[in-house]
């Protein structure tokens, strides 16, 4: 019996309850008569995942969801999303290569507990160059380069070349490239790319959200009981600690558990994929959440600020999830809101 290594197929609907170290996951096409010749390309609609650990084999059955293709078999991706994907993959390559030799990465402190590396800057340049090649007239707001005005300010790209720099620097394999395109102030295209797991989350306004080309949807729990929420600690704004941890304590009694994974862009993408049921964090910058916001919304989540309004672009305070989760999250946050947090 031969087992084929997990292929780099565009789009796996990943089960949320499966052990998922990708390098450990093997695939067997049970439909193939000749299992020895099973390859990445001949898999059918029905197959099994085998997760091999040292002593256990876990088997789960998955079904593919139809990929978004036109009748001619071509991807129907919007051309500007296509460029965003190309830019994100180019940056992802820069990051993944540098991750193999972390000792060579140059780290600088740019603020309180806030770091930037030569890799953030190189990845950002790769994104800007890719966008500029196709759309030299568009304007760009990038975390490390600031505002780069173009001749057409209706089109604005919002870039975080490496969201989760602390994880990257420490060798924690959880970070992403985040690229959004706003047209006349409305986010139209979004990509969040995790280069380590080769997971590409994307969305076009009005056309749903996808993971590696497959449709994803957020969960819609009725209550906080049983939910897994993601959050970010206010590590750059420690004056918010008391209020933040009061909210955390109140919430923690109701939810199943909480994650602080270290990349707001991926937190939002994971809400979209139904891996997390909700997310809340304060003081984010537009590049942290511009892409993830659209992906989460297109997957069925709603996004508000801490007061339940839509002013999160100004405050960077986000509450995300299904409508009932957001409502209950807001009611837990409300009693602890300080003046500066409620804006
Ligand atoms: C950070 C991450 C983190 C969040 C911070 C962000 P960076 O982005 O998204 O999860 O808690 O507020 O600044 O600095 O790694 O790009
Ligand atoms: Ca960021
Ligand atoms: Ca960053």
How does this structure look, described?
This protein has 343 residues and is an alpha+beta fold. The chain has three domains: 60 residues, no CATH class; 137 residues, Fructose-1,6-Bisphosphatase, Chain A, domain 1, CATH 3.30.540; 109 residues, D-Maltodextrin-Binding Protein, domain 2 (3-Layer(aba) Sandwich). The chain is built from eight helices and 19 strands. Strand 12 and strand 13 form a beta hairpin. Helix 5 runs parallel beside helix 6. The longest helix has 21 residues. The N terminus is likely disordered. It binds D-MYO-inositol-1-phosphate and calcium ion (CA) (2 copies). The site of one calcium ion has 4 residues, from strand 9 and helix 6. One calcium ion binds next to strand 9 and helix 6.
Topology:
Blueprint (H helix, E strand, L loop, with lengths): L3 E2 L19 E4 L17 E7 L4 E7 L15 H21 L7 E5 L2 E4 H17 L3 E5 L3 E3 L3 E12 L1 H6 L5 E8 L2 E9 L4 E6 L4 E3 L2 E3 L11 E4 L9 H12 L4 E3 L4 H9 L5 E4 L4 H13 L3 E3 L7 H4 L2 E4 L1 H11 L10
Parallel strand pairs: 7-9, 15-16, 15-17
Antiparallel strand pairs: 1-2, 2-3, 3-4, 5-6, 7-8, 9-10, 10-11, 11-12, 12-13, 13-14, 17-19, 18-19
Bound molecules: D-MYO-inositol-1-phosphate and calcium ion (2 copies).
